[in-house]
Design goal:
eight-stranded mixed beta sheet; Rossmann fold; 10 strands; alpha/beta; about 10% strand; disordered C terminus; 434 Repressor (Amino-terminal Domain); 22 helices
């Protein structure tokens, strides 16, 4: 979502990076570009003004002038102020002392509340909780059925009345769900009705449900792609009903993303969760510092590591680490396992975009296609166990058979085998060209040559051969 904003800000900071001396003019020039980038991203004008004011006050003061590297210090200030705008600290969910914890979702129609209810339930289930989804949206046709489908996909419990078109009492449903959950579920997630716009009926219904169930957490669900309208809507919901934190949906979209950068400052409420994809697992806490780092093209390695830990089995990781260290036993079977684990982590381009400096590789990243991973997976799965263990056994006829079985070409088989062979050689050498030694990998075999006069090579060819 923040690709364009990230590019603009990174470009503005590039001019000050590494400068030995930073003048007020340098700061002003950088801030002009940063302000323009934020306004173009649909960030609220009041937020942009305060942001720029805070940066300038710190940048032209002793904080930067006394620094050994003023350019880097300026970038650090921008990072810290951006993190502050996004909420500074990660807001964790509060669980009730006396179970169950009740979470009520608010938001307009189309914000993605129902899908998000399923994502939140999936996330809670992974935290060893026993969530119950409650279908209290009786206004929108098929809303109850949709939540039933999502509950089945997430494999979580649901409390739902018979679906009706605008009939039923959502307050009664929410209250009955509390009684139903007693002794069964420790978290209740109430999916409420939305409207295309805020109206009196919507406010009254939501207020009555909140009064009846006394939720532990009231979360406002907002579509991150609708810009400043999201901020105005959030303000109205907070004034009329009140909520504790916001949840951003569709954060993987290609909109300008100004809502995420304005919500906290304008509403005074933190962003608790972010939904970043279509899968039920594409959901987690919103980390302001990590998001600021991504916007400034400094990567988000912590999130990448967390995703990897979820996707890679501990035993599988240990086995793979041993294979990588030795360089032996690393087969196409192992490669297939790693490929499947990577696919569990999510979209390949999104993952690589979390690496520092990914903005500079934008063209290469956009060329990456998850379908290529699927094709590679199909090729390896079309091989016999022996062929996976011994790629050198792949003669012409076998490659033709594999190509036919995987729906690919012999040329693609050749490319895969060649690249895999090169990777094996690098692992055995314990070093990757242009990167350096692989941590924990064995050093290349051969005698070490001492430094100093002992390193002088003999003029005798036979002795040189022995030395080298």
């Amino acid at each position: 979502m923040f690709a364009q904003l990230s590019n603009r800000i990174s470009s503005a900071l590039r001019d000050v990076r590494g400068k030995g001396r930073l003048t007020e003019t340098d700061v002003d020039d950088a801030l002009i570009e940063i302000r323009a980038a934020l306004l173009e991203a649909d960030v609220a004008l009041s937020v942009v003004r305060e942001f720029a004011k805070a940066i300038k006050a710190r940048a032209i003061g002793a904080e930067v002038s006394a620094a050994l590297n003023p350019g880097q210090q300026f970038i650090r200030i921008v990072n810290e102020e951006l993190t502050l705008i996004l909420g500074s600290n990660t807001r964790s969910i509060k669980f009730a002392t006396n179970k169950p914890t009740v979470i009520m979702l608010l938001g307009l129609q189309g914000a993605g509340k129902t899908t998000l209810a399923g994502k939140l339930a999936t996330w809670l289930k992974a935290q060893d909780r026993t969530p119950l989804l409650v279908a209290a949206d009786l206004q929108r046709p098929n809303a109850v059925d949709q939540l039933k489908v999502i509950a089945e996909q997430a494999n979580v419990a649901i409390y739902a009345p018979e679906p009706g078109n605008g009939v039923g009492d959502p307050v009664a449903v929410a209250v009955a769900a509390l009684k139903h959950a007693a002794g069964r579920n420790d978290v209740i997630i109430i999916d409420t009705a939305g409207r295309l716009a805020i109206d009196a009926d919507l406010i009254k219904q939501a207020a009555e449900i909140k009064k009846a169930v006394q939720p532990t957490e009231t979360l406002f669900v907002v579509d991150a792609m609708i810009g400043q309208d999201a901020v105005l809507t959030a303000q109205q919901f907070d004034q009329e009903i009140g909520f504790d934190a916001t949840v951003l949906t569709k954060l993987d979209g290609d909109a300008r993303g100004g809502a995420a950068l304005s919500l906290v400052s304008v509403t005074g409420k933190p962003i608790m969760f972010a939904s970043t994809g279509e899968k039920l697992t594409d959901f987690d806490y919103f980390h302001p510092d990590r998001m600021a780092s991504r916007i400034l093209d400094q990567g988000d390695v912590l999130t990448l590591i967390e995703q990897a830990e979820k996707a890679f089995d501990a035993e599988q990781s240990t086995k793979m680490a041993q294979s990588l260290k030795s360089g032996d036993g690393f087969t196409l079977e192992d490669f297939l396992e790693q490929l499947q684990a990577v696919q569990k982590m999510g979209d390949l381009s999104s993952m690589l975009a979390m690496l520092p400096g990914a903005g500079k590789l934008k063209n290469q990243l956009t060329e990456l296609d998850d379908r290529q991973l699927k094709r590679t997976e199909a090729i390896i799965q079309s091989m016999t166990p022996t062929e996976r263990a011994e790629p050198e056994s792949l003669n012409g006829s076998r490659r033709a058979r594999i190509a036919a079985g995987s729906g690919t070409s012999v040329a693609e088989i050749n490319t895969l085998v060649k690249r895999f062979s090169e990777a094996q050689k690098m692992l055995k050498r314990g070093s990757i060209p242009g990167i350096g030694p692989i941590p924990g990998a064995p050093r290349a075999q051969g005698k070490k040559v001492k430094s100093g006069k002992g390193a002088r090579r003999s003029g005798n060819p036979a002795k040189r051969a022995q030395q080298g």
